[in-house]
Design goal:
This protein is of the alpha+beta class. It contains five helices and 13 strands. Strands 1, 2, 3, 4, 5, 6, 7, 8, 9, 10, 11, 12 and 13 form a 13-stranded mixed sheet that branches. A hairpin with a 3-residue loop joins strand 3 and strand 4. The N and C termini lie far apart (48 Å).
């Protein structure tokens, strides 16, 4: 840990003391923190249990711009080299996917965000990728649990996440109030500088991790243009031939 990060953590400790209700306040403050974000880039990582099987860890570079534009290029995991582009209201609300390979690399594949092929590799549709949806999932669960009087949020202490100071929050919800039916616990790392969740580990009632997400190298409100979400971008590899699935 660098001296600067250690100093920031030390100074932040009194500000985020473990007073009753402070951890829950910080959890719900994620929504307001995200309200000022129009775009971002990040190194996105995920590992999920899908159809009772743990899938390999994946990592992708992501560009996101409101209201719903995203581009991803996988740099690690089985989909390495895959590109995905989704712009709400374009291409029939389907995602454009370019898969590397001798034959698959000849076509751009058009898929519905919630197609069986997508859900065979992920717990959520393509449109659930992103910080905003992660916040929605977590706070949706928290609010449902709060209504039932069963929400528990505790302070897990200060941590360093990707070289940035953060705070770990531990959330427990009653059965049926989680991001998915079997999710009962969430360990969330909040970046102290932005107030945004940069990591989340979701577990079931038996303590088994079912999903893990992380956003590293997060840059907020970078200057993104229409070309960043254009399949004709010379830095992308989407073939002009298209195949609908």
């Amino acid at each position: 840990m660098s001296l600067l990060v250690a100093l920031v953590l030390a100074l932040a400790a009194p500000a985020w003391g473990a007073e009753p209700g402070e951890a829950a306040r910080m959890l719900f403050a994620m929504e307001a923190a995200y309200a000022g974000v129009e775009s971002y880039t990040a190194r996105f990582a995920r590992q999920e249990v899908v159809a009772s099987a743990l899938r390999p860890r994946e990592e992708a570079l992501v560009k996101f711009q409101r209201p719903e534009r995203m581009y991803l290029r996988w740099i690690d995991g089985p989909p390495r080299g895959r590109e995905l582009l989704f712009v709400r209201g374009r291409d029939g609300d389907r995602a454009l996917i370019h898969e590397p390979g001798l034959l698959t690399g000849l076509f751009t594949i058009l898929l519905a965000p919630d197609s069986p092929r997508v859900l065979g590799e992920s717990r959520h549709p393509i449109t659930d990728i992103g910080l905003g949806r992660l916040i929605d999932i977590i706070l949706g669960s928290a609010r449902r649990a709060q209504e039932r009087g069963g929400l528990e949020v505790t302070d897990g202490g200060l941590v360093e996440d990707g070289g940035r100071p953060g705070r770990r929050l531990e959330m427990r919800v009653p059965r049926g109030a989680g991001p998915a039916e079997d999710v009962r616990r969430a360990s969330i790392t909040i970046d102290l500088a932005s107030g945004l969740p940069v990591a989340a580990l979701l577990s079931d009632g038996g303590g088994r991790a079912v999903a893990e997400y992380a956003y590293r190298e997060l840059r907020l409100n970078p200057s993104l243009s229409a070309l960043d979400f254009d399949p004709a971008n010379p830095g992308y590899g989407f073939p002009r031939w298209r195949l609908s699935r």
